[in-house]
Amino acid sequence: MIIDVHSHAWKYPEHFTQSLRDNFKRARKDVEVDLTTNYRDYLKNSSEKVRTIVFGGKARQSGLWVDDEYVADYVKQYPENLIGFLSLDPTQKNWKEEMKHGHLELGLKGIKLMPMYAGFNPNDKSLNALWEYATENNLPVLLHTGTNVVPNSQLEYTFPRHIDGVAISFPGVKIIMAHLSHPFENECIAVIRKQPNVYADVSALHYRPYQLYNSLMLVQEYCVWDKLLFGTDYPFTNVNDSVRGLKELNEKVGAKIKLDETEIENLIHRDAFSLLGLE
Ligand SMILES: [Zn+2]
Question: How far is the CA of 144 from the centre of ligand 1 (A)?
């Protein structure tokens, strides 16, 4: 059994502004990738049984807005396999109502944030109500950390050091920093090592094998393999490619010092739902 902690559900292109589509296209050397999400297609690309955390995403500044209703409906089709998270953009005035609505009325079980895309510091005092609510209701919080391709989004908000600050003030919240905060993996590893409730996912990294090999070597030397969670970032990639990408790393980079293959196997099959208190 694989648990994928990072997958999206949205309508493409309806939930994206033209400007965000153009930015994604520029990042792929002028090729527009179809980011349509469909659970049956997702399953086709997983050879193993998989259970999945699903969210949309809200970041008005960058041009993404997926209502939580859409995610709740997606998850409702396959409730035994999918767990939905609500999304918040705290720069928008209704975020507190959306948080309660998503949790209490839609039954969503965690929170997804995109600080750099939306333009806020996750450790700003104005977000204390969010971290308090997450603590009281046992809602894990997954944040996009690491860079992006949107010119008007501020890099400053994406650094793992802010999550260190959050975890000092709110040590009870389970937090996942997405994408090992690429290419700031060293800072990410410093934070997951010192904070017991902070984890990182390895989604959407395998297509830079040398970078991922080096990041996981840091993980290995700092002894934090147990703080990594498997994720895909579907529809950007899928389960099979992500699993293969991890397993092939040693060979692909011609590693003299090898990543521990048992640890890679453990990462792929880690019971993230138990760690995050979702079951
Ligand atoms: Zn994502």
Answer: 7
